[in-house]
Specification:
- The chain is of the alpha/beta class.
- It has ten helices and nine strands.
- It has two domains: about 5-80, Winged helix-like DNA-binding domain superfamily/Winged helix DNA-binding domain (Arc Repressor Mutant, subunit A, Orthogonal Bundle), CATH 1.10.10.10; about 90-195, NAD(P)-binding Rossmann-like Domain (Rossmann fold).
- The strands form two sheets. The chain has a seven-stranded mixed sheet with strand order 5-6-4-3-7-8-9. A two-stranded antiparallel ribbon has the order 1-2.
- Pfam families: CoA_binding, Put_DNA-bind_N.
- It comes from Luteipulveratus halotolerans.
- Modulates transcription in response to changes in cellular NADH/NAD(+) redox state.
C-alpha cells in the first residue's frame, strides 16, 4: 500500500486524524442541502476551534473565500483525495467472533470508501460459513493469493493478535486496525491503529467519577437554611 497523499505532503498526524471528522461533518451538511459553510459553522459541526480547523485545511491548500466560506462539495472532494478515498480500499477482517460478526455486518464501511472483501478465521467450525454475504476463509486461503493494498482488521482475542499481525505483515499488509486489547510489535513502515473500547470506557468512568465528586462537594458546601420555628403561645 502506498502512503496516502496526506502523509506524503507532511501533514501532521493530528491533522490527519481530524480530516475524517471534517469529512463526516461536510457529508451531514451536504445531506441537508448546504452549499457553502463558514469556518466557524464547520468547526462547530466538527467539535473543534475554528482557528484549528482553518490551520488544518490550510495544509490542503484550502483557505475558503472571505465572506463566503468553503464550498461544501469541493472541500469534501479535497479531503477525500488527501485521505486516499478516490477508490474503495479492500478490508480483511480476521477473527469471526461476536466483534468480527458485527464488523462484517457494519454498513458504514461501504459508505466511507472501504469494502470488506475477506473474512478470515482458523476455527474449522467457522470456516466455510457465510457471514454478511461473504464466505469465511482460512489464513492459508488468504495467503495463497496475497491481496494487494489491503487493510487488515484484527478482531481476535489478545492472545492471538500478535500472531495474526505477523502473518498479515508477512503477506505484505502495511496497514492494520487492531481491536484486540494489546500492543502489537510490527516492523517500521507498518501502520497500526488501535481501538480499545474498554480503555475508552475507563476514561469515561474517570470523568464520571470526578463529576460526581464535584457535584457532591458543591452539595456539601451548600448553606443549611433552617426553617423558622413555630411561635409558642
Amino acid at each position: 500500500m502506498t502512503d496516502a497523499p496526506a502523509a506524503r505532503r507532511g501533514i501532521p498526524g493530528a491533522t490527519v486524524a481530524r480530516l475524517p471528522v471534517y469529512l463526516r461533518a461536510l457529508g451531514a451538511l451536504a445531506a441537508t442541502g448546504v452549499d457553502t459553510v463558514s469556518s466557524e459553522e464547520l468547526a462547530e459541526a466538527a467539535g473543534v476551534r475554528s482557528a484549528k480547523l482553518r490551520k488544518d485545511l490550510s495544509y490542503l491548500g484550502s483557505y475558503g473565500v472571505r465572506g463566503v466560506g468553503y464550498d461544501v462539495v469541493r472541500l469534501r472532494e479535497e479531503i477525500a483525495r488527501e485521505l486516499g478515498l478516490q477508490h474503495d480500499w479492500a478490508v480483511a477482517i480476521v477473527g469471526m467472533g461476536n466483534l468480527g460478526h458485527a464488523l462484517a455486518a457494519y454498513s458504514g464501511f461501504a459508505t466511507r470508501g472501504f469494502r470488506v472483501a475477506w473474512l478470515v478465521d482458523e476455527d474449522p467450525a467457522i470456516i466455510g460459513r457465510t457471514i454478511a454475504g461473504l464466505t469465511v476463509i482460512s489464513f492459508d486461503d488468504l495467503a495463497s493469493e496475497p491481496p494487494q493494498g489491503v487493510i487488515g482488521v484484527i478482531a481476535t482475542p489478545p492472545t492471538a493478535a500478535q500472531a495474526v499481525a505477523d502473518r498479515l505483515v508477512d503477506m505484505g499488509v502495511h496497514s492494520i486496525l487492531n481491536f484486540a486489547p494489546c500492543v502489537l510489535n510490527v516492523p517500521d513502515g507498518v501502520e497500526v491503529r488501535k481501538v480499545d473500547l474498554a480503555t475508552e470506557l475507563q476514561i469515561l468512568a474517570f470523568h464520571e467519577q470526578h463529576t460526581r465528586e464535584e457535584i457532591d462537594g458543591i452539595a456539601d458546601l451548600a448553606p443549611v437554611v433552617e426553617e423558622p420555628k413555630e411561635a409558642t403561645s
